[in-house]
Model the fold of this input.
Amino acid sequence: MTVLRPLLVAILLACLAAPALAQRPGDLAAGITEEEVAVTSDYQGARLTVFGVHWRGGRAKSDVVVLLRGPGEEEIVRRKRRVLGLWIDSDPVRFSEAPSFFALASTRPIGTFLSASTIANLGLDPGALARLESSTPADSDPAAYRRALVRLKRAEGLYRESAYGLNLEEDGAFKAPFMIPANAPVGAYSVDVFLFRNGRLVQQKPGEIVISRIGVEKTIHTAAHTWPLLYGIATVLFALAAGYLAAFAFRRR
Amino acid sequence: MSLYLPIAEMSVNALLIILVSGGIGFLSGMVGVGGGFILTPALIFMGIPPSVAVATQASQITASSFSGVIAHARRRGLDLRMGLLLSAGGVVGSTFGVQIFAIMKALGQLDLLITIFYVFFLGVVGALMLWESLAALQRRAKGGPPARRRRKRGWAHRLPLRMRFPQSGLFISVIPPIGIGVLTGVLAAIMGVGGGFIAVPAMIYLLRMPTGVVVGTSLFSIIIITALVTVLQSAQTQTVDLVLAVLLILGGVIGAQFGARLGARLKAEELRIILGVIVFATALLLLWDLVAQPSELYVLSR
Done:
């Protein structure tokens, strides 16, 4: 990588000339190693790296933050309540537009150089992105539900924040590795690269990656949702054929 | 070897699933039960969403029952008339069961419904299995004659709408067989099991069918019921995972065939005790999850 870096910087410099890639030439350039991820039958999640280079503005302290975000979806958070000695999931609270996947990599913890309002405005906090759709039960705190949403998604590996996950080199090059687990949904993921100087946003570069099913995975998923009845009948026919084959193969002679 | 399940939307170890379904198929083949009531909880413990585990499991039972019924039909151990009546009840029961399944899924209480059904039925069946096999062992130790079932006329013989069943040598009301079918159908839809563990004792003790035709006949109705459940679940809840089904069928069917061969040469009582312990322990484990103070009070449901 050390040998490659000057080359990478040179390529990125060349890229900067292209108007499509630079909003304001001279500050930030970025790319993604994989822009299309295919979900095949051996899919175990995807690894990708967001890399780039930024121009350091004098003595100001630069920070780069990369946000990888999956499509927004509805989430229902329930709180367990004891009913007749059993813990039952009750008191549902609905959130819409909660990021299905959220991964943040930064040069240092974002709370150390950004104000809470900036973090919320730029969408760097997954809890703040989720919109509360229903009223919360009378005796509960909406914030507790919001915290629970983030905690539960984190436990599933779908929300990940890596405070030092972005490696910023002296020459301005940076790279941030990401892991998208297999349980993250398919769809269009946004990739945003933010450049901050002294805690102020200097530039933001948007990008996108697409995760899609291909091959058998796509055929089965489409069939199950487009022709559910035929799909069910086909499953039964397969089961009957397998059962018949087994009986035939294991017949006592 | 990892494999991505298109409906469950997760990556699983294919070999592990085949081994687990094969092992449970082997055990159930030895004892002569379907095994769905152990495999479904096992899948849930492995992280497969309960809705997918239950709906997909039904297709595995179709396959293993079909491979079993062929052997029974060959030696005329099948009462077709009775099987059709049970299936008719099963159609009603499973249609009803799939509706409940869909409603509870929409309410976000499907996992609770499945767990409660499992705790109750596994608890009862496990306890009965242990009780019966311990009693059988005790009798054998004493050297006394095996307990004889008295063939008397039960209430199935007194209800109206009586019908002749030549294959079973019975003249009984059609209401009890249909009722057994309805219950089996509900269980198949909600638990992803064949329901043989309810149907077989009911046919022996309630209908007083000769044991020679009971298993074949129950397998016949189980095929019809689980096939219907698979189609209905696909149509209504889209939770049948074909890739998972292939793995389960592969392991389960082969395991059951080997198990049946070995089982024929082994003493059944000891095996029943082992199975009874497993079933009862599974029920306790599931019950514990319901009553123990959870470490996380909140849950995500989709």
Q: What stands out?
A: The two ends of chain B are 28 Å apart (CA to CA).
